[in-house]
Amino acid sequence: MTAVPTAGQDDLLRVEDLKVHFPIRKGVFFDRTVGHVKAVDGVSLTVPRGATYGLVGESGCGKSTLGRAILRLEEPTSGRVLFDGTDVAALKGEPLRQMRQRMQMVFQDPLGSLDPRQNVESLLSEPLHAHGLGGGKAGIAEKIRGLLDAVGLPSAALRRYPHEFSGGQRQRIGIARAVALEPDLLIADEPVSALDVSVQAQVINLLEELQERLGLTYLVIAHDLAVVRHISDVVGVMYLGSLVEQAPADDLYEQPLHPYTRALMSAVPVPDPEVEEQRERILLAGDLPSPADPPSGCRFHTRCPWRQETRCDDEVPVLRELGPGRLVSCHWAEEIRDGVLHPRSPEEVLHAGIAVQPGAGGRARDDDPTPFLGRETPLPRAEQG
Amino acid sequence: MQAPVLEVEDLAVRFTRRGEQPTRAVDGVSFSVAPGETIGLVGESGCGKSVTSLAIMGLLPRRGVEVTGSVRFDGNDLVDAPDHVLRGLRGADMGMVFQDPLSSLNPTVPIGTQVTEVLLEHREMSKAEARDEATRLLDRVGIPDPGRRLKEYPHQLSGGMRQRALIAMALACAPRLLIADEPTTALDVTIQAQILELLRELVVDSGTALVMITHDLGVVAGLCDRVHVMYAGKIIETADRHDLFTRPRQPYTGGLLASVPRLDSTRGAPLTPIRGSARDAIPWSEGCAFAPRCDNAQDDCLTEVSGSTVPLVPDGPGRELRCRHPLEHPSAPSGATASGAAR
Fold first, then answer.
1. Whole-structure pTM value
2. Nearest Cα to Cα of residue B284 among B258, B251, B310
């Protein structure tokens, strides 16, 4: 990706051409690297202070790896992560530890990310001790009470253990722990996907409330487009390790430009029978190709219902600006937007796997199983790459 | 309307443990499905929707489980049916698709053997015939290159393809009833769309009766004819999908609709969640289980009236409701969103 998003006055986070490649190793005696899984392959984005950037994509598209790489929980292969002007990717030791105080993460699985043998008081005071904050016993106790209050938990929760809480309450504890250090940036990786519908809304509202009160900047990673749209100002759509589209939330949902975004949005079920019956349905053929061996040209061409004979297969599209604040990486974005090109119908796509089209060179490889890469993990919501 | 394939009446499942109070997982559930019809059982985790499906199929363990009521398949009761009768029906006349395809497939046996097993068992085919039929089935559910796939093991297939294979197995004997328990929950949205399209096609083409069990209201809106909303083991509202989504009557249904962020709603408006969590339910014997979380709850929600708890009563044409203080929809303006109306 060569296009760099326009630099704002007050960007808290700038990611420049970030790459995270995981080596594939083979051999018993000699550790040979036979290839790389390109989990994140050249992503650039900026998040202004106080804003919410939403990152969507399916399992295996690299969105979680990108989030972890920003916090240096994953070592970036190349590229820069500028947090408030400092390159996080170049930090080491104590400066990195101190920087992390300002960048916190909320994880997907609250039960898995909280130590089952620590009670809530100890869970919440741990980060304060680690960073020498809070000022003595009394100060810390005071701070913890404030935190519990902020996330809507009773003070009786202090002596209880994670297993005694419901999923929604556990996620509140996870959020309290993340905001305990008064960070500037909060990266939330699938913060509500493990929760029941009626509880999801509570946690979404809590995140919004905290943002307003504490002036937080969010990077929200999720697969649920409706959730992302609800809380984000700017949304980036990822496919196979790179951004395919980025736009202000309203614009993106009003008029998605990239074929993948359109397909994604048409696939999200809407709880309204009238809408369900009328809206356009775009089905994608097949599964996500292996990130170790991504298709040539446009990475989406193997599944794209708008795929053209020229350019798509052999020319890599760059992320280019198409209107204010709108970035898209598709050769044919204008033609698709203006309705010059038409997608294949759902019936055609559903049975496309059987009647392989002549010349669809990428398709055979697309179906090639590479199980060890876990293109689609059996529990995709639980642990995404 | 044709005679129903499946009629469930007053089904109750109790889990008993020595030294503990029995748990009522399913409590007086009744519904029926006709050929070519799709019904939805909707509810959050722990509401008893999966246990209902397992009870219908006779897949619950015998020990520590009490199943009462009746499940009639083609007029024959299944609750007390002996094992060999159930075994003859399962896989042949009744098919089931589970949520997690990897754990429902045998990891050490190739896909082909697992599909042909059903055919050999129920349709008395020869091995060669079964093999051809299996190829045709995989082809029908949209698995590319089915001949090669038959030789592969479950771990070699992607999640979406495993779920297709499972659907192919469920369809092997052209069952008249298919129960799908959260068939798309573990899948990505684009794959979910493929699977839903496939199920839709099957119901239309083969006239299979489909029971769709899900927590996703969006899936229900697009697929099901009639919807039963469950809470704490009971059906609390039944309606045609159009009625349910435009005019939810049970405060729980209304609350669910209002708490889901929608792709087509105006952005920025705060969501209106249901307070508390499903853990806050009280036993039905003491009133309405949802009362502790309900905004409409009044004193009589927590007491018995004339010796019975809150009953499921008819509520307009084709609707049933279990609530003493339902949501009112004065004029049901056309085009009003469900979430707007529910508030």
1. 0.82
2. B310
